[in-house]
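Re: beginner question about structure tokens

> Can someone show what the tokenized structure looks like for a real chain? I only ever see the sequence side.

Sure, here's an example I had lying around. Input first:
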Amino acid sequence: MEDFSALINDFSTEHSAHLEGIPALGECRQAIADFVEAAKGHLDPAGRLRFRLKQAHCTFALQALDEVTRAAQASLASNCFTAAEALSRIILEQAVNFIYILNDEGVGRLRSLIKHYVEDSKRRANNWAKSSAQLADERGVDGAQKKLEYLDLIRRQNDGWYKTTPGWPEARRRFAETGYEHQYHLLFASASDSVHSLAEDIFNRITVENYPPGFKSTALSTIRAEKASFATYLVINAFLFYGHAALLFAKEIGDAQAFGRISEVVDRLGAMVNEHDDLSYEMLQSLEKATPTT
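And the corresponding structure tokens:
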């Protein structure tokens, strides 16, 4: 039987090795970002981008994706894995939103997003006003009221389309309608703990406290390596989604040469995902066959 402790050490070593791919991952991100930066100023006012609303959305959304992908890259490079996980979830959703809106022949989906902003902001402002009133906070009540008045103005100014525009769909539906429902479950939902509670990391750390003293340091190294590996996996997939968004953008502006270059980058990122999947599967199979030493 294989020695369980040796396998654990191998597990840590193999998963820590994923960090060696960070420079290559950065090269992929930079290639996508360079295309986006060059293309943003040359929006072709035709096809789905003939609407000024969509042109404005594309310009800002692509800038935001550039910012969060750079931040995720920097987080990985500085071993800030929890930050990398949280940023990856942001990238995944924003890339899907970009694809979801750009795939619309008109501006209905973009209007749904604006309507969601107004309605959700009104809900929060009303809660702010109620809480401030309970605390006798006059400034808070006044600030909330001004916010509500502003939102009501937006509603009135856009009344022509507002009433007939459907609501913004929840995240799972947006992933599904862009062809990524599986990735919603595999990636987006899996990363939610890194944003909301950190419960899994806390549970793992507490569990290690019950291990024998001689095994505790090994277990801590393993948890650290697994977290680094998961963060890397999420960032690779997030950059892959960034690439898919850039591909759609290149197609919409009719840049066949850029489409080809970004396709190569997407293929490279996809190969990184597959390599990561294969390694993780092989290591887990080995661990399942092993018997812990006593």
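Each token stands for a local structural state, so reading them left to right follows the chain. DSSP finds 13 helices and no strands in the chain.
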